[in-house]
Amino acid sequence: MLNQIRPERFLVLYLPLLLSWLLSSWPQLSYLTAWLGSFFILQISISGWVKPIPTDRNLSEQLMRPLFLTQLIFTGYMSCSTIFYFLNQLGYENFHLTNHLFKPNLHTLEAIAVCQRFYCLGHASFTTGILLFMQYPVKKKYELQTVDIANLLLKMALVLVPVSLFFLFVPGLNQFAVQFSALSFIAATLALAFAVPLRKTDNILIAGSLFMFNFYKSFLSGYKEPIIVSMLVLGIFLYPFYKRTITLVFAPVVLVLFLLLPTYNQVFRENAWSGNLSADDASKVALDAALNNSTELESSNWTFLVFRLSEIDMFIKYINSTPKYVGFYGPKMLGQSFASLVPRALWPGKPNTEDLVMERVVNAGIASKDMDVSAKPALIADAYLFGGGGGIFFTLLLYGISAQLISQKAESLFGGYLLGSALVFSGLFQMFWRGLSFEFLLNSVVWSYVSMLIMARLLYGFRILKIAG
Q1: What integer pLDDT is reported at residue 96 of this predicted model?
Q2: Is 454 left (phi over 0), alpha (psi -120 to 50) or beta?
Q3: How far is CA 124 from CA 18, 183, 269, in A?
Q4: pTM value?
Q5: How far is CA 141 from the centre of its chain?
């Protein structure tokens, strides 16, 4: 595991942070150095410069491993998305300077630069954790007995739908419904991606129907992420077979969705969540607004890019209040996180995890107790509340290590990359893509890991897997 590690190259991951810190007297330059630093970290890590890329599969056939998709989504959401907030503080709106005499608030710019340095630290630490323990191919405990992967994936997608519905109606086990619903979606997407190049008509129709059903459910959920992720995952799965087509078609489609969804979701929520319209009717109204109202589209998009795509606005409030007014939470957060592991079915009186996490939001002055909002701190902000810069470094290092080791465990249990990383890891462990508050993250990871172990035993029992040897 350690034979390919060159310590001096790992230290280069932290070079942008060092340069940004040295430039801290010039907040705009410090921010841009840390922001560009995340692109630098991405480049030297996925190119294999820090540690060689695994050679057991072609590059296009291992994109669902943590170094690639997980790092890309996590970094894009956490570190790179702050540029719009930064531009807004400089007086820009829709990428146009609104007033050439505008003078930005120096205190705010300094806070933005501090946050970005913490994001850069988190990214470097997360990537370090992944690369330190990245070792492929893994030693397989089980291997597949079937050669018809397309049919296997389709059957799994069909079975997982009723499994997720079952947990939905069992009190206290709703989180398993979420897990298996995500796993069913990934299985259907992967089944469709395998059926298309094989031209298996029945599989294409069934898997395609499942995919469209999930896509439709996402549109009626009022959330952007499932819609964008569904297209992104399908594109990644199809990419090894149709590289040129995917590049020319899926990239523009994801971009269009990214531009239209903020307006669509805003209008949908205003009508559906308030009870004014049914979900179907609200969807029609929202789609019309997104396609035809250019003024509202521009306004909604910029507001989304500035205040909702990134969580730096809240992060600034946490830094301003902790530790100046509110101390670091440290052991308290750990205690609450381990308590969250007990299923509510076994502990009916368990404190509401949402309420426990929201205490940190209230203490920072972001929301009041009587407000009906959910504004839980994102992972790097929560790691800061846990223990400052040291909390960020050690939390994100452990985060990267955990993602990498779990991905490798999945490949060991499920016969390799396809069922291991592409299906099980991507389906059960999507929390690694964006990160959660401590309590929700630990709970999700632990119980998803338990689900993974149970799945492996069941597939072995049904003779889909066999002992490797």
Answers
A1: 84
A2: alpha
A3: 11, 29, 36
A4: 0.90
A5: 28
